[in-house]
Amino acid sequence: MCGIVGALLKSGSVTEGLIDGLSVLEYRGYDSAGVAIVHDGGVSVRKKRGRLANLEEALGDGAFLGALAGIGHTRWATHGEPSDANAHPHTGRSGKLAVVHNGIIENYIELKRELLNEGESFSSETDTEVLTRYIDRLWVEEGGDEAALVRAIRGVLPRVTGYYALAVLAQTPTGPVLLAIRKGPPLVVGVTEDGGYLSSDQLGVLPYTRNVVFLEDSDIALIGPGRLDVVDASGQPVTREARAIEWDPSDSGKGDYPHHMLKEIHEQPDVIARTAFDRIDLGAGDVRFEGGAFDDDFCRSIERIQILACGTALHAGQIASYLIEGLAGIPVDFDFASEFRYRNPRLVHGTVALAITQSGETADTLAATRLARELGARTAAICNVAGSTQVRESEATILTHAGPEIGVASTKAFTAQVVAATLLAIRLARGRGVLHEHKAREILEELRMIRPKVESLLTDAAIARCREVAQQHAGKRGFLFLGRGVNFPVALEGALKLKEIAYVHAEGYAAGEMKHGPIALIDTDMAILVINAEGKVAEKTRANIEQVKARGGVTISVGSDAASHAIAASSIPVPATSEWLSPILNSIPLQLVAYHIAEIHGCDIDKPRNLAKSVTVE
Ligand code: AGP
Q1: Cα–Cα distance between 214 and 233 in angstroms, integer?
Q2: Which carries the bigger pLDDT value, residue 588 or residue 24?
């Protein structure tokens, strides 16, 4: 939530790069955008409510061109409504210092009161302005140079409760200074001979260098051309190694697609192949993870798995729970990370906490995993961002190779998580000696052959079918998604996709639970999508379709079970595969139906209202 960028250049003009950086980070929040540059011996700010385009328009006079240093911000509002005044950057009274912030200063009211008593005034309702004024006052008191700024920040931070990624820009007597400070939310730095760059994620730095530094908690970094000076919490200089990033900066574009979401849906055949194929050892009927992770000893030592995740990633986690229990026989619990961390959880000896997260920076997932570690669990992660906090803090990681996911609604990252979970379940089962080689090989062969099946769901004809279903039902009062077994979480995910991008009320439900309440909702104005794959629960789910029909409900069957298509009012057929792998295929038409309903309703598909991609605050 909130994206921040900053740069200090040797020569040239910083503003264009800041705007490019913000356009890449806009998925993190889009309530307002702003930039500050060093200018005429001080700092100048332009900021605008709403999308980045409004800021670009405000910068149209060219007055911000030619500065060597600047910072920028794209906001997901926490304190204070989206407005020009509440937009970042915020400035100090000195007129020589500006700050952008991602996070929350929890004790800002107390700090604000103190500063008000000392005669300070404020022009916004934000927590960030309080912090900015505080730093600025101390900086001026300390002498107003570079060293004074580091001292001021080190003096203020112990008084602050909360989480922050901060970029501080100041004009000192010896020139502009750019600082990056991190506690909680991510901050990535890249340094070349031409400039020093910071960003909330690697996408903002990749246009300049593929060698990026992920700052650690409590780091304070001075950044400039050829310069990265970091001190840790105790004020000691530390070295933070750069890590080479594989992502191509062009991966974050839309290509020829109207929306990132549609592009990302279409990338799924590649993503699934990248995540799975090199890890499959068909000869041995087994899975090999990089660096020998999840070896036999590790697999045998696990008594229980606690899955921790949020939103879509938790739906992947629920699928993982069916796979791991079903194939490896390990008891699995799953929980919303936000619930786990506050419910006084009890973990048995031998628990592995498995975090599932696209970004690797979700605040609740990180906190829940840390708590699990404190309670004695070992930690593992399924994650899409190498170098993210979640990966750095986990003992074992399975990377999903989905590439950057920009659309706020997760699609390719979800299917990649499900693929990774499938591989993990098989490795655990093989490592514990509970799944016969030929059985494992059967599933892995199916997975090896899944690519053309995924592609068949993305042909013009297949997409047209999803669009047709969307057109038929877009006006319905509500949607119910039903599924059983491993396809129950697929139903939850289908409903979430529709809610978040089309703003339509939708419920995901276990098909067998329908009779215990939701059946009362059913009438002709409710569309019921039933996800049903060939397999052991297909017949039971078919019975649910009949029950819905008997009450006048409009049924759409999605999946490989032909008998369901024969009885449902309409259908979206999906190729047959192993029941264990069916969630990968069944999710795709649901993504497309949600996409087209959102399109029909004229929604902002890549940037749904009120949402942000990476939830780095509680
Ligand atoms: C889903 O479309 C959402 N973007 C959201 O539920 C997301 O999956 C959740 O916030 C978790 O994010 P993470 O995978 O980065 O941890």
Answers
A1: 16
A2: 588
